[in-house]
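Before going further, learn to read the protein records used in this course. Taken together, the tokens spell out the fold as the letters spell out the chain. A record is reproduced here so that you can trace the correspondence yourselves:

***
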Amino acid sequence: MSFELVDTTYEPYSQDPGYIAANEALIDGIALEGVARVADLACGTGLLSQLLIRRAPGLTVCAIDLDPVQIGIATRTFEGQGVRVVDSLDALRAAGTGAVHLRAASAMELPFDDGEIDLIVQGNSIHLMPDRAAFLREVARVLRPGGRFVFNSVFYVGTFVPGSEAVFSEWMKEAVLVLNRMNAERAARGEPGIPRKRGTHGRAFQKDWLSAEGWSAALAEAGIDTLSAGHRPVPISQKGLQLVGAYGGLAEVLMSGYPVDIASECLQEGAVRAFENLGITEVPRNWLEITAVRR
């Protein structure tokens, strides 16, 4: 199996039906009465913003992501959908209604005035914030009193459906076996093994995931009260797990230190093998969904 042309951006996974369905459910549950100004943090390819604008075309949305590649993909998508894209936050403010501004920036230092935003959304990325408390204080700063903060995540205590852990263990085992095969093939050709840089890791897999109750407590410390917190079961298909593995941001965490393209290839082939070994067509996974309000 070859994945030489693999796309390691977030775009392929953001188009997976299961992923879209999970985020549609999140967005469809948001009350948009009184909402005009929205911030989409760590927006990736802009899916949440797209779903919001589909529901309410008059919104003004500022979508922020640290990766300019993702911002470029999101910009092209919005332009292709005929959405008005403006090139600055001042232009967005001046637009009044029906526009989006996309910018490569950190969600840790938001470019908004105090109390400027009515609604903040964040899709499956809150676990990546390098300083949780500081991030939540920044969210509270830019939200108006009564403004909402809505997010989801699959990196939390409770994400694994009991009995499903074995699937993910099998996935990683098979990915390592693919890596071993690659190294053996290189050795047979007289080539050096796949290089690995030790000591790299990603925040998503540090041992500090929170439960729903933990997130509610962290939000409360920042002046944001939880209105609802729930778990949404979303099955992952074999194709979905392949697309997850293809994403470079996750591949560099799951197979830390290896070149991202190699890690991505191993994880994709490993997903196929794991599903075949276990004789399954999907694996359940819970998504955390929280809606909170600024005091």
Remarks:
- The longest strand covers residues 143-153.
- The mean pLDDT is 93.
